[in-house]
Amino acid sequence: IQGKIEEIELPVEHVDIIVSEWMGYFLLYESMLDTVIFARDKWLVKDNTGIIFPDKAVMYLSAMEDENIRRERIDFWDDVYGFDMSPIKEIALREPVVDVVDPKSLVTDAVPILHLDILTCTKEDLAFTADFKLQARRNDFIHGLVAYFECAFTQIHKPIGFSTAPFCRYTHWKQTMFYVPDTVTVCAGETLHGQLTCKPNHKNKRDLDIAIAFQFQGKHSTVDTTVEYRLR
Predict the structure, then answer these.
(1) What is d(CA 183, CA 81) in angstroms, rounded to the nearest whole number?
(2) How many Å apart are CA 39 and CA 11, to the nearest integer?
(3) Phi, psi torsion values for 37, nearest 5 degrees
(4) N or C: where does the chain have the smaller number of CB atoms within 10 Å of the terminal CB?
(5) Greatest CA span in the chain, whole angstroms?
(6) 3-class DSSP state of 89
């Protein structure tokens, strides 16, 4: 059967299992989970025996030191072969970067910012706000935040899962980086507080509008800022 799940009809009233590789960059990019939720509500058996693969997802946030890449991607615009093109710098800053992060560049611990149970979540759950608190593991600089996710298959005899974390095996999802306007100098044990808000873009629901507000007051740096990103 070929066609959009929202438009097709199946030759059966219900199905026992739904299998879908719906995950995108930053877990939710391209809004493909909406379709899985539609299929679940319409087709999956209603007696709590239905199975979805995968059925659990968690997204994490950490902070990173990444001076070299920041210089290439962001600060590059300050002097482009002798021309000041710094107005483009802000545009570049607001576009998250999907790439591989060196696990050694992680400066803080990682905290969960989103938990999804695919058996019960709703479309409304995909637009979310999460408070976070990141603690520095060493004296270093923070140039941005990095997000990654894990998925699990728990409805089987031996539950399994996978992670897109920097310290795990490479996946095509890589990690999603959010560079911050100013370098933050941190000491081991200091804490960065913040809030991340994510929602589909109102013009193109496949894109994500992500706002990150964070505050930090340490021995060498004080920061209180909000940056609005668009993942597209």
Answers:
(1) 24
(2) 14
(3) -65, -40
(4) N
(5) 67
(6) helix
d(CA 77, CA 60): 30
CA 224 to chain centre: 22
Tokens of 88: 């483009």
User: Tens digit of pLDDT for each residue in 10-64?
Assistant: 999 999 999 999 999 999 999 899 999 999 999 999 999 999 999 999 999 999 9
pLDDT in tens, 154-184: 999 999 999 999 999 999 999 999 999 999 9
Burial class (CB in 10 A: 0-12, 13-18, 19+), 193: middle
Tokens of 188: 């081991």
Determine how many CB atoms are found less than 10 A away from the CB of residue 56: 18
Verify cis geometry, omega within 30 degrees of 0, for the bond prior to 54: yes
- Enumerate the H helices of 131-193 as residue ranges: none
In the block, residue with structure tokens 């992060």: 101
Specify burial of residue 225 (Cβ count, 10 A radius: 0-12, 13-18, 19+): middle
Distance, CA of 7 to chain centre:
30
The residues assigned a catalytic role are 21, 30
Region of 30 (left: φ > 0; alpha: ψ -120 to 50; beta: rest) is left
